[in-house]
Amino acid sequence: MKKLITVLLLSTFTFISCKDDEKTSQDPSKTTIKTFDNVKVAFGDGLSQSAEGTFSFPTNSENIKTIKMFIKDICPNKECDEWDRYANLYAKDKTTGEWYELGRFINPYWVGNEKLERGYEIDVTDFKSILSGSTELKIYTETWLAKGRKYTVEFDFEFGTPDYKYSAVVPVFQYNKSSIDGVPYGTAFDTNVFDLTKQINIPSGAEIAYLRTIISGWGHATPNDAGGRGCAEWCYRTHHININGTQTFAHDLKAIGCAQNPVNNQAPGNWKPDRAGWCPGMVVPARFDNIQKSMFGSTFNFEYKFEDWTNNNGNGNAFYAISTFVVVKSNSPINKATISN
């Protein structure tokens, strides 16, 4: 990503209100709802890096089998911000007012994702308790140019018998407002601001529970790994989740095949070399970790741990933008997991 030196952003938002959202599917077992329609996010000229809107989704969530989100990143004739920008889409929890990160992606160089029939596809079924009825959405891009990016976003709701009738989701933490709002890597940070240690209680009525994590690194800090790979964009690292002090889950932030990206018209642009767990013009993958059923109904300690490395501050900073959620499911009505410090 293009390195930022010093920027002060005063955020404003574009608001979109949609009372009668467009439904395009002709299949009675599925409904397609268009939300943002060719909406522009940008920096400068009175524009904003974010757009918000309120949209109407189905309310019978217990009969929803899957929800897929499709994001068209529209850039005809190279008219958009040409850099590989951090971007994501959120839905607001109606109870707490907190924004939940549904998915994250990185813009391709110079072009949009028109080579993908419906754009980026992200399974957001885990958030069906949030994506119900009148729902506020927000789309964000870390663009620093007035050219910005334009997006169209659709949701496919497939009806049928789900794996479990009821589900609930809650964030463990979210440090994901932008690439540089992530957790500093390789240096001391304020644990009151970035708290990677929590206590989690899974409802005893849950039949399955798991963690859903999205993480991407930014920065070119030294010392470099072999081949001049700076942290945290290029350096391959393994992160761990400790449960009750025991190393339990591993997240390998390594190559995911940037050169095989179907958005292969990114010219000019340094899109083929592998980053640490992400690529320009691709969705940042979600990582899933199943929680043992023996832990349901009791409180356990959670800690997210980065691999040891010391930033010598010789060439900028390193950050990990991260969000982790707990998803619980049951065939009986279920409450969210509870998270405490």
Q: Can you describe this structure?
A:
Keywords: Disulfide bond. Residues 185-325 form the Peptide-N-glycosidase F C-terminal domain. It is built from no helices and 24 strands. It is mostly beta strands. Strands 1-5-10-7-8-20 form a 6-stranded mixed beta sheet, with no helix packed on it. Strands 2, 3, 4, 6, 9 and 11 form a 6-stranded antiparallel beta sheet that branches. The protein is globular.
CATH class of the largest domain: Mainly Beta
* Number of helices in the DSSP assignment: 0
Distance linking N and C termini: 33 Å
Number of domains: 2
Rg (C-alpha, Å): 20 Å
Number of strands: 24
Instruction: Tell me the CATH architecture of the largest domain.
Output: Sandwich
Organism: Paenimyroides baculatum
InterPro entries: Cu2_ascorb_mOase-like_C, N-glycanase, PHM/PNGase_F_dom_sf, PngaseF_C
Keywords: Disulfide bond
Protein name: Peptidase
Task: Label this structure with key terms.
341 residues, mainly beta, Jelly Rolls, 2 domains, six-stranded mixed β-sheet, six-stranded antiparallel β-sheet, 24 strands, 0% helix, globular, disordered N terminus
Q: How do you describe this structure in short?
A:
The protein is mostly beta strands.
Write the layout of secondary structure elements.
Layout (H helix, E strand, L loop, with lengths): L12 E5 L4 E2 L6 E5 L4 E3 L8 E8 L6 E11 L11 E7 L6 E8 L13 E4 L9 E9 L7 E11 L6 E10 L7 E2 L12 E5 L6 E11 L1 E6 L3 E4 L4 E7 L2 E8 L28 E2 L2 E5 L8 E7 L13 E12 L7 E3 L1
Parallel strand pairs: 1-5
Antiparallel strand pairs: 2-3, 3-11, 4-11, 5-10, 6-9, 6-11, 7-8, 7-10, 8-20, 12-23, 13-23, 14-22, 14-24, 15-21, 15-23, 16-17, 18-19, 18-22
